Amino acid sequence: MYTEEQIEKLHLKSRKLYAKCFDLQEKLVTMSEKMPPEAREHAVYGIARRLVMLRECMKFFFENIPPEINKEANSVVLAQGNANLHAFLINCSGINDNIAWFLAYHHALEQKMDLEKNKHDIGLFNKEFEKYLPENVANKVGRFTDWYAGLTRYRHPIAHRIPPYVIPYVESKDIGKIVYTPCYIHAFDKSYPVPLHAQFVCDLGAVVELVEALSIDIEASYA
Question: What is the tens place of the pLDDT at every residue in 37-69?
């Protein structure tokens, strides 16, 4: 359960992140006009497009299953919530790959190696790819290693095992009542309930910081 102050802060942070996604999309699209075609594809149709999906998934939860909810959401809203949860987690993971592939084409690596044969080496958090990370992105990657590891623990079940879902409520033995604070989980024997809104703000916050760092690093190249 969140306090009133925590709920207010979550709503404020979500609104700021929502607006920031628009700003970053605009920057990427503007810079893309001077990018090589392959880099432009990942900037516009990868990074920018995923920012749209991430911001709208987060907005859905804050508007339809808010952190202050005090009753069980209806089955239709929960089903929509599960779809948005899956989209959010997949795109949180995928946007990191788009950043890495953008950097590969930004550095014209296709002229130095067969990218298809070496595709498993191209990853933002891949040790083999570290040398291609510009300064600001590298700093963020160093800080967010644990965050990314946690993210992949939920990305893999979506694709391969039991997909995560929004828990409608939890019966708390400690306080002797039903708690409706939205959480998600993928399997009770392999994970634990994650506070949805707080984690979404954390995840999108990390994504925004990474894309901000990228835009700073490449701005001079595409001014």
Answer: 999 999 999 999 999 999 999 999 999 999 999
Give the model confidence (pLDDT) of 153-210 as tens digits. Answer: 877 667 667 889 999 888 877 666 888 999 999 877 677 889 999 999 999 999 999 9
Distances (CA, A) of 148 to 33, 117, 144, 154, 173: 30, 24, 6, 10, 32
User: Which element (helix H / strand E) includes 207?
Assistant: helix 196-218
CA 24 to chain centre: 14
Secondary structure percentages of the chain, helix, strand, coil, to 5: 70, 5, 25
Structure tokens at 108: 């014209």
The pLDDT value given to residue 133: 98
**In this structure, what token pair is assigned to residue 145?**
């290693």
Which residues 6+ apart lie within 8 Å of 76 measured at CB? none
213, two tokens? 């760092």
Query: What is the number of structural domains in the chain?
Result: 1
Coil/strand/helix, residue 198? helix
Percent of the chain with pLDDT over 70: 96
The owner of tokens 């409706």 is: 180
Q: How far apart are CA 223 and CA 220, in angstroms?
A: 5
Query: Which two structure tokens, joined as six digits, stand for 205?
Result: 């916050």
Q: What mean pLDDT is predicted for residues 199-223?
A: 97
| CA 80 – CA 220 distance, rounded (Å) | 41
**Pairwise CA distance, residues 154 & 164, whole Å:** 7
- The CATH number covering residue 33 comes to 1.20.120
> How many CB atoms lie under 10 A from the CB of residue 170?
14
